[in-house]
Structure to design on (1145 residues):
């Protein structure tokens, strides 16, 4: 397996409840995984653990058989080769689009840097925007810069945290397709977290549903629909749906 | 210590080292709490302690209230409304900070006393013979007035910056919900600026607690008076340290309250699209009222005392030797600049440490360094000298090796003085830096690390540039404070080392306030210049 | 990055040591090694902040070639610094404006006995410490100042008389944190015992025109303002007011009269400025030379002229202004008593509620 996650558990120091319990997942190269769940379900915790921004209480993560974390090893986030697109993008406001993207390329030669910059700009279709500052861009453009920045250093794995939450509905539709194209073109293994089932259905090869820190479901998008059908018959889940929309 | 990976790295190590170094001298004071009390302590308790505490409490509470009222109202006017002189007032309202409170106290007394300009004008020009007691400001309300007009900028600056960075939608939505400007102010603005108000007010409180110059001159007996009385008068440094330690306890309570009020809320916005508040244009009497309110505060805190100082300077010009003033000025600027630089560098390291570690204890650790700010300068001085003499004794073999024929090297150098400044004013620099870190949050740091940059690279490439404003404002505040500082400079300076403030104090303490005016004006001039430069820089940044 | 931090720190250190050494002429590194030969400097910790003092030090340098290195500060804080610096202290001479503080320095073992014929000749015996640990340099009298319109000089007699009923609500004096008041009360403790001193203090508090505030000059102004009729203050402050740059102050001073109390009884309270050689002084000879210089007629004349203080050297005449106030009888007590009774006087102040 390309990415292997085994028995990952985590709890925040200031709460007693476990944020994530015994989470396991195997991912093939090039696969797009969606982690679906309500806010507070622990879905973002998975991303933070993979990125190395949190330390799991137990569990093991490896990419291409290289161990990132287990009970003895902990690779610092900057050494993991994992890219992440933050929910609010976290574009450095004091740097231009080009400098934001070049930020992760500081180990490359100058000429290689410029080539890579043009490549990713082309990928996200933002050529000509190099000199702009983040606040001079629209929400959709900001997101694409964030993706370009995360992809630029050629990470093994791309993580996206609620990629559509900051965009208005109309834009969401369009961006979803764009994102899918970008991911496929880049042929990058990726995991994105969302609370919106539609996102998951359109983008993901596989969906992982998390509820209260526990894995609730793993499977293809079409399988999830079957599950829901059964659930709906057994209990009226109106309240849950409502929350799904608002979180 | 779970969350943010408290790994041993250069940041945690230097962070803890700095905190320890800044805190160590305070330990002498803390230990004072545990010495058995002697008859002097009993005497203090029986006769005077209660009135000291009462006076200190009144001073602190009323001054805090008044500075919050003035600071916040000014900040709100400047952040939300457009009216005449607003652009000028925005930075000019910080200027009162450039006047040392003890100089302000002497100056206002000079204005109000029997031979002062107000009474003489009323007598000679208008033939009015009013009871001089009406003009007496050398009392508790007078001291509160002095502290308020010269210290409100601490609340004003911090709150103003905070408010002008608030998202417009928050304020606008309250207006749309049918709240008038007053209710918006009290129901939304006050609660959301709570943190910055507390941050500013706690600086004011600490400043009032450790001040000695104003209360001594105005004849008000406070806790600080008590410390000095037992030390100097009774020659009982143990009891005075005991008093200082109790004061420290009081400050710890204030710090804890601040921490609790701040709670667990994270005040960061990483979104790049915060729309600033659009200014509402005031017209007619409202514009006049707003402008005159701001201008009258500014006059009280700056123009009036400055005018008096200028008059005195003219009166005494030529009567005191001025040839050394260039060297006083250079000394002032050099020590203030060096201390401010050191404090900001240390504050950045400690602040980053505080951000990297989690866990309640580790988070509180940096707060310990703030204690130095609450202790009267003279007491810190003793603690620092003691520590340095011990250090020199420890290093003595090294000095011998270097062929020096003396045991005291560091303790007679300017490093002693600068160290004391750092301990004393760390709180001011740290406050700015901490707010800066709070504001940028951790997302940018996370993003940077996931792009392969280590903590150190992240610090220089992301944190520092994003905190430019906080760094510069912290630097300026410390710089001005060192420039004004008096007890430490007086006791700890090396031979033949005079600064503008020691010069001003030398005359003022000898009741020659007129002769003190020239050095005072230079202090004010340099501080004001620093404020202007800072403001121009910020303005450029905003564009 | 680590390198960068070190670089910055090293740079800072270099700057610091550079400033330290060029500004302060580094007495530390030279002092001891040159002691065997001729030392060319003297390190002075002084609590006197007058410009005229600086002029005198300059003159001393010109005449003797001995450089005077100065730290000016508050007396108690300087004492504490000397104490903490221990044997390593750089201080050679400690100069202050109150006999009580000189006593305390001696009591804490910070001073050493020195003597020279010249000093004995220039300074009368009652202004020298009995163990030759310190020498008085100038005298200041704590006098009464009164409103010429409401008070006739005949009504004034003694400090004690001010506690009588006729002065109720008319007496002005500064706060008890001030060392001149502490020494005044200390002298009464010496003369009359603790009980009577306490009675005096509490009687005076009863007659206060207002709670104590401000400095000595402010008491004089309060008389002019009509708040009270008589004030206790130091003589030289009155002299300074008469010669102030501010015409309003001069006007105030001119409306007031000066009175030397207790002429028929113990004499007017007198305190001194004085200095003692620090125990571990490495430039003892130079320190003595400076003491001799400051008590010589020329320097004594300057003190009297510029600062309205009374010279201790009997060869020197007080200034014209001082002479115009007339001669007076001084309290005849050992000045050390001011220091011995200092703490007691503070306790009394607290007990009688003298703020």
């Amino acid at each position: 397996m390309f990415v292997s996650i085994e028995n990952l558990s985590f709890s925040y120091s200031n709460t007693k409840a476990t944020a994530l319990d015994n989470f396991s997942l195997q991912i093939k190269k090039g696969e797009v995984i969606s982690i679906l769940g309500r806010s507070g379900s622990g879905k973002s915790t998975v991303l933070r653990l993979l990125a190395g921004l949190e330390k799991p209480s137990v569990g093991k993560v490896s990419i291409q058989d290289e161990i990132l974390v287990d009970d003895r090893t902990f690779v610092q986030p900057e050494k993991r080769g994992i890219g992440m697109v933050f929910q609010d993008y976290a574009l450095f406001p004091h740097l231009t689009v080009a400098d934001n993207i070049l930020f992760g390329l500081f180990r490359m030669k100058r000429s290689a840097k410029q080539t890579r910059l043009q490549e990713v700009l082309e990928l996200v279709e933002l050529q000509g925007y190099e000199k702009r500052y983040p606040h001079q861009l629209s929400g959709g453009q900001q997101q694409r810069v964030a993706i370009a920045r995360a992809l630029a250093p050629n990470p093994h794995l791309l993580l996206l945290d609620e990629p559509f939450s900051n965009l208005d509905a109309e834009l969401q539709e369009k961006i979803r397709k764009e994102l899918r194209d970008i991911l496929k073109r880049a042929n990058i293994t990726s995991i994105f977290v969302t609370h919106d089932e539609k996102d998951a259905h359109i983008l993901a090869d596989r969906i992982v549903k998390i509820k209260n820190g526990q894995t609730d479901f793993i499977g293809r998008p079409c399988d999830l629909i079957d599950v829901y059908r059964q659930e709906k018959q057994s209990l009226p889940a109106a309240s849950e749906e409502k929350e799904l929309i608002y979180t | 210590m779970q969350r943010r990976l408290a790994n041993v790295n250069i940041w945690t190590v230097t962070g803890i080292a700095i905190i320890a170094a800044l805190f160590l001298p305070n330990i002498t004071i803390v230990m004072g709490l545990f010495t058995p009390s002697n008859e002097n302590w009993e005497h203090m308790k029986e006769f005077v302690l209660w009135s000291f505490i009462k006076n200190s409490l009144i001073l602190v509470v009323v001054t805090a209230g008044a500075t919050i009222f003035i600071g916040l109202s000014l900040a709100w006017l400047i952040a939300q409304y457009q009216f005449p002189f607003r652009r000028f007032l925005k930075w000019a309202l910080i200027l009162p900070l450039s006047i040392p409170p003890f100089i302000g106290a002497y100056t206002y007394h000079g204005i109000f006393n029997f031979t002062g300009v107000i009474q003489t004008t009323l007598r000679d020009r208008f033939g009015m013979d009013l009871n001089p007691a009406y003009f007496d400001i050398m009392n508790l309300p007078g001291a509160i007035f002095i502290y308020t007009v010269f210290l409100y900028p601490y609340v004003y600056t911090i709150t103003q910056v905070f408010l002008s960075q608030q998202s417009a939608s928050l304020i606008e939505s309250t207006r749309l919900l049918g709240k008038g400007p007053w209710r918006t102010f009290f129901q939304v603005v006050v609660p959301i600026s709570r943190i910055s108000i507390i941050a500013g007010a706690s600086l004011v409180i600490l400043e009032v607690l450790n001040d000695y110059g104003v209360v001594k001159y105005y004849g008000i007996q406070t806790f600080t008076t008590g410390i000095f009385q037992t030390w100097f008068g009774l020659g009982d440094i143990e009891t005075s340290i005991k008093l200082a330690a109790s004061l420290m306890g009081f400050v710890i309570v204030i710090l804890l309250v601040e921490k609790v009020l701040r709670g667990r809320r994270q005040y960061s916005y990483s979104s790049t699209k915060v729309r600033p508040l659009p200014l509402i244009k005031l017209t007619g009497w409202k514009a006049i009222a707003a402008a005159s309110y701001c201008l009258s505060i500014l006059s009280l805190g700056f123009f009036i005392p400055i005018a008096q100082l200028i008059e005195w300077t003219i009166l005494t010009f030529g009567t005191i030797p001025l040839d050394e003033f260039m060297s006083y000025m250079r000394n002032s600027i050099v020590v203030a600049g060096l201390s401010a630089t050191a404090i900001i560098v240390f504050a950045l390291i400690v602040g980053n440490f505080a951000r990297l570690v989690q866990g309640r204890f580790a988070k509180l650790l940096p707060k310990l360094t703030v204690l130095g700010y609450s202790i009267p300068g003279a007491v810190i001085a003793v603690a620092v000298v003691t520590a340095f003499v011990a250090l020199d004794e420890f290093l003595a073999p090294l000095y011998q090796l270097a062929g020096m024929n003396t045991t005291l090297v560091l303790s007679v150098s300017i490093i002693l003085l600068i160290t004391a400044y750092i301990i004393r004013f760390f709180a001011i620099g740290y406050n700015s830096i901490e707010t800066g870190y709070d504001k940028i949050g951790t997302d940018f740091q996370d993003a940077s690390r996931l792009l392969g940059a280590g903590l150190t690279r992240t610090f220089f490439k992301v944190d520092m540039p994003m905190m430019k404003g906080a760094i510069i404002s912290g630097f300026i505040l410390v710089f001005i404070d060192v420039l004004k500082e008096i007890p430490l400079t007086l006791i700890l300076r090396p031979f033949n080392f005079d600064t503008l403030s020691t010069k001003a104090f030398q005359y003022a303490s000898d009741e020659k306030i007129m002769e003190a005016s020239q050095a005072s004006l230079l202090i004010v001039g340099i501080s004001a210049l620093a404020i202007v430069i800072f403001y121009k820089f910020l303005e450029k940044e905003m564009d | 990055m680590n390198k960068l931090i070190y670089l910055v720190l090293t740079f800072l250190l270099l700057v610091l040591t550079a400033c330290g050494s060029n500004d302060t002429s580094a007495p530390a590194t030279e002092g001891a090694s040159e002691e065997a030969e001729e030392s060319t400097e003297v390190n002075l910790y002084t609590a006197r902040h007058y410009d005229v003092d600086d002029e005198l030090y300059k003159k001393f340098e010109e005449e003797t070639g001995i450089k005077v290195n100065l730290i000016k500060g508050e007396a108690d804080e300087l004492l504490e610094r000397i104490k903490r610096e221990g044997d390593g202290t750089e201080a050679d001479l400690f100069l202050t404006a109150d006999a009580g503080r000189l006593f305390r320095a001696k009591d804490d073992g910070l001073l050493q006995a020195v003597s020279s014929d010249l000093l004995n000749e220039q300074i009368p015996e009652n202004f020298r410490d009995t163990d030759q640990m310190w020498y008085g340099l100038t005298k200041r009298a704590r006098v009464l100042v009164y409103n010429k319109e409401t008070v006739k000089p005949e009504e004034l007699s003694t400090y004690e008389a001010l506690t009588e009923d006729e002065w109720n609500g008319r007496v002005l004096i500064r706060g008890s944190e001030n060392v001149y008041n502490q020494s005044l009360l200390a002298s009464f403790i010496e003369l009359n015992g603790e009980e009577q001193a306490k009675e005096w203090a509490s009687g005076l508090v009863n007659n206060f025109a207002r709670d104590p505030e401000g400095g000595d000059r402010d008491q004089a102004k309060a008389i002019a303002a009509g708040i009270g009729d008589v004030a206790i203050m130091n003589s030289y402050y009155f002299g300074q007011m008469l010669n102030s740059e501010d015409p309003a102050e001069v006007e105030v001073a001119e409306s007031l009269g000066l009175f030397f109390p207790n002429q028929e009884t113990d004499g007017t309270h007198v305190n001194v400025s004085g200095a003692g050689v620090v125990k571990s002084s490495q430039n003892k000879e130079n320190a003595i030379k400076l003491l001799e210089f400051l008590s010589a007629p020329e320097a004594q004349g300057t003190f009297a002229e510029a600062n309205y203080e009374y010279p201790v050297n009997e060869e020197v005449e007080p200034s014209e202004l001082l002479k115009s106030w007339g001669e007076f009888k001084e309290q005849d007590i050992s000045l050390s008593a001011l220091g011995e009774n200092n703490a007691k006087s503070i306790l009394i102040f607290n007990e009688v509620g003298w703020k």
